[in-house]
Write a structure and sequence with these properties.
The complex is a heterodimer.
Chain A: H1 4-9, E1 20-22, E2 28-29, H2 31-37, H3 43-46, H4 52-58, E3 59-60, E4 63-69, H5 76-80, E5 89-95, H6 101-109
Antiparallel strand pairs in A: 1-2, 1-3, 4-5
Chain B: H1 3-19, H2 32-50, H3 52-58, H4 61-77, H5 81-97, H6 104-111, H7 116-129, H8 135-147, E1 174-179, H9 185-198, E2 210-213, E3 220-225, H10 228-235, E4 247-250, H11 252-260, E5 273-276, E6 285-291, E7 297-302, H12 312-316, H13 318-328, H14 340-347, E8 352-355, E9 358-361, E10 364-367, E11 370-376, E12 380-381, H15 389-399, H16 405-423, E13 429-432, E14 441-448, E15 451-457, E16 465-469, E17 473-475, E18 482-485, E19 494-501, E20 504-509, E21 515-519, E22 523-525, E23 535-536, E24 539-540, E25 544-546, E26 552-558, E27 563-567, E28 572-575, E29 582-584, E30 590-592, E31 598-600, E32 604-607, E33 614-621, E34 625-629, E35 639-643, E36 647-649, H17 654-666, E37 695-698, E38 707-714, E39 717-722, E40 728-732, E41 736-739, E42 745-747, H18 765-769, H19 780-784, H20 796-802, H21 808-813, H22 816-821, H23 827-833, H24 835-842, H25 846-854, H26 861-867, H27 873-879, H28 882-885, H29 887-894, H30 901-907, H31 913-917, H32 921-924, H33 928-932, H34 934-937, H35 947-960, H36 962-967, H37 995-998, E43 1002-1005, ...
Antiparallel strand pairs in B: 1-3, 1-4, 2-3, 5-6, 5-12, 6-7, 7-11, 8-9, 9-10, 10-11, 13-14, 13-17, 14-15, 15-16, 18-19, 18-22, 19-20, 20-21, 23-24, 25-26, 25-29, 26-27, 27-28, 30-31, 32-33, 32-36, 33-34, 34-35, 37-38, 37-41, 38-39, 39-40, 41-42, 43-44, 43-47, 44-45, 45-46, 48-49, 48-52, 49-50, ...
Helix pairs in contact in B: 1-5, 2-4, 2-5, 23-25, 23-35, 24-25, 24-26, 24-35
Classes of the chains: A alpha+beta, B alpha+beta.
């Protein structure tokens, strides 16, 4: 099936303690997946692929709530979570922590507003 | 599918296109024929719905051919209906433009990364359409497409939109709540994703848009979809989804909050106390040292548990050892600060290395004795840490040099303060220690959530009610308060507060006389003395217990679930209840002291050698060891063991004791006629049990109906030899009935009474069951501890008063038990009503009342009548079940036994009347007239005697000697008995104290069947008391009852019983006991013998407690 790679990305076991959420886009993957393919949404900035250190600093196990986004563009939940432009997949509802400062600076230089995923600033 | 919806999607998509103008290209995706086909389909669909017949005719051959051609496409196209709508919309534009290239769209698709998501779906369709393409090419396209993914631009373009603009609108799909198995929420959410991918290109793709789960909402999954049907389709077949429990629409205004739920954030800051959840250090307290940037790992400092006694072979090389400890994990080593010397002694110098200030040992870092280790946040428990003072001190001890001690204490104070909110109760005395009202103190009136209302006390604010946050108040104690520890390691300690520093209260324990410091939150003011957990399991403080075949010991301290026991060798042991094989009774044991005199339990003795300790004999073991108790000694709770041979009586005229003791034994007249063991006359046990040898029938249980003979009794338990099968069974007495020679059955305790009325006084079995003593269990009255130890707490003066009568036996009659009886349901009172009373009180012998005090079970009117005071009653008492319930009782119960007087002084706690009573046993015996004097002949004396006594006598005389009874105004006062015999129970009906409520009292007719009163027609009927007037003595008392069915008639008072409360908030009247006459409401579900009541007074609400059988339900006014 052509969906192979996508299916691979879906964590096989919810109980797996190893699940990590990206601090920037909140996608949830196993560390192996992050290492192999990076973050499907923000790899350009985070550059997680093949870099365990980056993975530890830019992803976290400390998240709450899993959200499966099947149709990101039409889903309100995805819009609310600001993930409607991202690939479909499994995301975390809330991720605790902030991206490292260098990434934050990088975002700023691109004129992108950083929104932490911990729901601290709800405007 | 409605037009409106279509339109909306179009609008949305247009907007999208404006956002990303690149998407414009994707419009070229579809081939023109396809557009046409689609539109035709749409038309057809509509026509299908509206007028099918017409359509049939209208269809041209061409059109139908087209239709057939596109049939399979249609399924693919309609997979995502919204897309179709979009496409069809674009089609029109394109058609107008008229330029589209068949070949171009794939390239544009691949080249344009930004639009790839949309393309993902379109491509899928394209693939379907272009079935003729080679698989190689498909693969190539795919790899191109997915290969390009990594290069995608992170735009974060939606980040600028304020969250509030993202609120759901009516156009958005709805959220549906689906019930799932708790714990499987995440799996189900993931399964939905996988399922959607799996079935994406099948005939039935999932139409849900999203699904999510929140950790704080267990058992629920939320699915975003346009209809419930889509949800059902999506979750159908997933394990753990409870479709049957319904799929509920989430109101639009609640949608956002579902995603906004925040876990109660427990922030970890350096210095916070946490507990480790798992592993070797599970449950250990640790202090946060640092936290990693992402907040996942926490550096902790805590006390290591290093195994300093590893197995020999293991110590040799570290690897092996490691395996063992992790593998077996048998005993975890105790907490102990890291000590370099100790560790290298065991493990060798090689395994410990030192870097700077830090030791490294087995890959762990040790600093200043503590281990420093990183833990995952999830491996720690941050809530309910409740560090104890001891634990904190362990930490601070080593930190003295650092000086951050105070900071730590403030952290713990903070932690404990949080907990303090939950321990506040109305009535607590609190003070405000922060905020505007700091310094104010008052009594808690009400607690609602985090707000407490207090009634302030003090100069200015006196009486004002103030609302305060619960966290800014703390319990207030002042030196001199008597407090009890409610929680923690010192639970149930009581003591006198000596100092209060902030929230740390230091008090001197009543038990150990040692200073104990606890947090004020763990304290409560309490009047009771001593540890309320004096009883653990079946054992009680100061019990003599058998530890093993050779060892006995005395419990000198009870802890939560263990005892400290001093054994006969003077060693202290910590034992669990299960390590005790049995409790021994040394009440009958005697020994000989250094002067050859007899020692018995409860004698006050002193050591003649050694430390010359004094004490009261608790137990004697094998006539050789004596366990003594003296509250003045701190060690071992005041219990010590010594040899009897090194003891001497402390009685100033010890010589007097001796002849008395001996006399009573030598004098056959004084001896129990029943022939107790010589030398054990003290307890006057007499025959082992009057029930032994009785022929009985079992009336309850599996053996019901069997007849047998009682072979042995032990408290409430009998061993009965059945006639059938030659079997001996053990059974409770209350399951037995005595089988008379004529075949009738009578309750064991209730011999036929004879005149008048022929009622058995034993009463109906259920009444007896209500008697806690009969059950042999712990007596609630005592357990409550209002008078935990009447013998020790200074009731003696009353006796001195009563011992104005020269007769020590009269004292016996007024044993402190009577004082107690005025407050607690007293089994002795039953004695007052035993037929024995009739007999013995006919000879106006107050000693009989003494005997009766203990002799509530004296069922032998004959022997009573004949033998006067020498009733074997006490014997019966001891054998009758309640003697087992508490040693204190058995002592007192045994006291009236004739020869026991010398030592009976012991339990009075003083030497005062012991000697006085000792010399005169003989006079009391032969001169009943003398002993009789106080009561019948000097009624005037009554008001001076303790209430309990007079009450008791009143009742007993009422029953027995009408003439005498009328002398006493106390006749109206019912004795505080219950259950055993209701004859006196109705006296409350005539109690003036209850007068105002009497007409509301709900009563029931009870016991008429038994006596065949009025044919038993009124048995069980419920009604209210219309009136009750006391008839002259000698007549049956009656009361006018209005039954609930409207009938009213007068009923013999003795068949009228109050209805006991059985549910919350029932209004009840206390008809007996301390709170007599109080109308109150039931505060707790009245399912135990003691019921908590609330009394609403004019100013305040009082909570009190009363025995359930002392309560009568009231009708509403």
């Amino acid at each position: 099936m052509n969906t192979g790679p996508e299916l691979d990305r879906i964590p096989a076991n919810a109980r797996s303690k190893a699940l990590r959420a990206c601090l920037l886009c909140s996608i949830v993957q196993t560390p192996q997946e992050f290492r192999k393919g990076g973050c499907p949404n923000c790899e350009e900035i985070l550059q997680l692929k093949g870099s365990p250190d980056r993975i530890t600093s830019c992803t976290t196990t400390y998240f709450d709530g899993l959200i499966t986004v099947i149709n990101p563009e039409n889903s309100w939940a995805a819009r609310w979570q600001r993930i409607s432009k991202y690939v479909r997949g499994v995301y975390a509802v809330r991720v605790k922590g902030r991206i490292p400062e260098d990434v934050e600076a990088e975002l700023e230089s691109r004129g992108i507003k950083y929104r932490p995923r911990d729901q601290t600033d709800q405007d | 599918m409605s037009d409106v919806e279509e339109h909306d999607y179009r609008a949305e998509d247009d907007a999208d296109m404006q956002d990303e103008n690149v998407q414009g290209e994707q419009e070229e995706v579809d081939a023109p024929q396809e557009h046409e086909g689609r539109r035709a389909e749409y038309d057809e669909e509509q026509e299908d719905e509206e007028d099918e017949e017409d359509e049939e005719e209208e269809l041209s051959g061409k059109k139908s051919a087209k239709r057939a051609k596109h049939r399979h496409k249609r399924s693919a196209a309609s997979r995502f209906i919204d897309i179709e709508a979009e496409v069809s919309d674009e089609d029109e534009d394109e058609e107008e433009e008229g330029d589209y290239a068949d070949d171009g769209f794939i390239e544009s698709d691949v080249e344009d990364d930004a639009s790839r998501r949309h393309h993902a779906m379109l491509t899928a369709r394209t693939l379907h359409e272009q079935e003729d393409r080679s698989p190689e090419q498909i693969a190539k396209d795919l790899s191109k497409r997915y290969g390009g993914r990594g290069a995608s631009h992170y735009t974060g373009d939606t980040n600028e939109i304020p969250q509030r603009l993202l609120m759901p609108s009516v156009h958005d799909a709805s959220l549906w709540q689906v019930r799932v198995k708790a714990g499987r929420e995440r799996d189900i959410v993931l399964s939905l994703m996988r399922k959607s991918i799996d079935v994406e290109f099948t005939a039935k793709p999932l139409q849900i848009l999203a699904a999510f789960q929140r950790d704080s909402l267990p058992g629920m999954v939320y699915v975003e979809a346009r209809s419930a049907k889509q949800v059902i389709q999506a979750v159908n077949g997933l394990v753990g989804v409870y479709i049957s429990r319904g799929i509920h629409l989430v109101p639009i205004e609640e949608m956002a909050s579902l995603l906004q739920i925040k876990k109660q954030e427990q922030t970890v800051t350096p210095g916070t106390w946490v507990r480790i959840r798992r592993g070797k250090y599970a449950g250990d307290l640790a202090q946060v040292v640092d936290i990693t940037e992402n907040g996942e790992d926490v550096g902790l400092r805590f006390i290591p548990r290093i195994d300093l006694t590893p197995r020999d072979d293991a110590a040799v090389d570290g690897k092996k050892r490691k395996k063992q400890t992790t593998g077996t994990g048998t005993m975890r080593p105790p907490q102990r600060l890291f000590n370099y010397e100790e560790v290298i002694k065991v493990y060798g110098r090689k395994l410990v290395s030192k870097r700077n200030q830090v030791y490294v040992f087995q890959n762990e870092t040790y600093r200043e004795g503590f281990i420093e280790k990183d833990f995952k946040l999830s491996a720690l428990s941050l809530e309910d840490v409740n560090p104890t003072l001891d634990e904190i001190q362990q930490f601070s001890r080593k930190q003295d040099s650092e000086g951050d001690n105070l900071v730590d204490l403030s952290v713990i104070a903070e932690a404990s303060r949080k907990a303090a909110i939950s321990v506040l109760q109305p009535g607590d005395h609190v003070e405000v220690f922060e905020g505007e009202q700091a310094g104010v103190h008052g009594v808690v009136e009400e607690i609602s959530g985090d707000v407490v209302t207090i009634t302030a006390k003090g100069v200015e604010l006196e009486g004002q009610k103030i609302e305060l946050p619960a966290r800014s108040v703390r319990k207030r104690f002042k030196p001199g308060d008597h407090v009890k520890v409610m929680s923690g390691q010192n639970t149930d300690e009581t003591g006198l507060v000596v100092s209060v520093v902030d929230n740390i209260v230091t008090f001197i324990s009543d038990m150990s006389m040692q200073e104990i410091s606890v947090f004020s939150k763990d304290l409560r003011e309490a009047a009771e003395v001593g540890s309320s957990t004096n009883v653990v399991g079946n054992y009680e403080l100061h019990d003599l217990v058998q530890l093993d075949a050779q060892t006995v010991g005395v419990i000198f301290r009870t802890e939560r679930d263990s005892f400290r026991v001093l054994d006969q060798n003077g060693q202290v042991r910590l034992v669990q209840p299960h390590q005790i094989s049995m409790s021994r009774n040394s009440n009958r044991a005697i020994a000989v002291d250094s002067e050859g005199h007899e020692i018995r339990v409860n004698d006050n003795m002193k050591e003649v050698d050694g430390e010359a300790r004094k004490g009261r004999v608790l137990h004697i073991y094998q006539s050789f060891y004596a366990f003594l108790h003296n509250r003045e000694y701190q060690e071992n709770g005041g219990v010590f063991v010594t040899r009897t041979r090194s003891l001497a009586s402390v009685a100033p005229k010890g010589s007097l004791v001796k002849p008395t003791g001996d006399l009573s034994k030598m004098n056959p007249a004084v001896m129990q006629p029943t022939g107790g063991m010589v030398g054990s006359g003290n307890m006057g046990r007499g025959p082992r049990d009057r029930h032994i040898g009785l022929t009985v029938t079992i009336v309850k249980g599996p053996q019901k109906g069997y007849a047998g003979t009682i072979k042995d009794t032990n408290g409430n338990i009998c061993r009965v030899e059945l006639r059938t099968g030659n079997k001996i069974i053990t059974i409770e007495k209350d399951k037995l009935r005595e089988r008379q020679s004529d075949g009738t059955l009578t309750p064991l305790d209730g011999r036929p009474r004879g005149p008048p009325g022929g009622r058995t006084w034993g009463g109906p079995p259920q009444a007896r069951a209500a008697n806690p003593y009969a059950e042999g269990g712990r007596t609630p009255g005592w357990g409550v501890g209002r008078t935990p130890n009447p013998y020790a707490d200074g009731k003696t003066p009353a006796w001195n008063a009563s011992s104005r009568t020269p007769n020590p036996y009269a004292d016996g009659g007024k044993t402190p038990a009577w004082n107690a009886s005025s407050r607690t349901p007293n089994p002795y009172a039953d004695g007052g009503k035993t037929p024995a009373w009739n007999a013995s009180s006919r000879t106006p012998n107050p000693y009989a009342s003494g005997g009766g005090a203990a002799g509530w079970a004296t069922p032998r009117p004959n022997s009573n009548a004949g033998a006067g005071w020498a009733t074997p009653g006490p014997t019966a008492t001891n054998n009758n079940g309640w003697g087992d319930s508490s040693p204190a009782h058995s002592t007192s119960g045994a006291t009236p036994g004739a020869p026991g007087w010398g030592s009976a002084s012991g339990w009075a706690g003083g030497d005062t009347w012991g000697p006085a009573s000792a010399p005169t046993p003989a006079p009391s015996a032969p001169t009943p007239a003398v002993t009789g004097t106080p009561y019948p002949s000097t009624p005037a004396a009554y008001p001076r005697t303790p209430a309990g006594v007079s009450r008791f006598d009143g009742s007993s005389y009422t029953a027995a000697t009408p003439a005498g009874g009328s002398l006493y105004p106390d006749d109206l006062e019912p004795s505080a008995e219950h259950g055993k015999d209701e004859e006196e129970e109705f006296n409350w009906l005539f109690d003036p104290a209850l007068g105002q409520h009497l007409k509301r009292v709900k009563v029931q007719i009870h016991g008429t069947h038994h006596a065949n009163y009025l044919g038993g027609d009124y048995e069980g009927k419920v009604g209210r008391v219309l009136g009750a007037a006391k008839a002259a003595e000698g007549f049956e008392q009656t009361a006018m009852i209005e039954f609930e069915d409207g009938e009213s008639r007068s009923i013999l008072a003795r068949y009228i019983v109050p209805v006991e409360p059985h549910e919350l908030r029932q209004e009840v009247l206390v008809i007996r006991g301390q709170h007599k006459g109080t109308a109150a409401k039931v505060h707790e579900t009245p399912d135990s013998a003691m019921v908590a009541l609330v009394v609403k007074g004019p100013e305040q609400i009082r909570v009190l407690e009363a025995a359930k059988h002392d309560l009568a339900v009231l009708y509403d006014t």
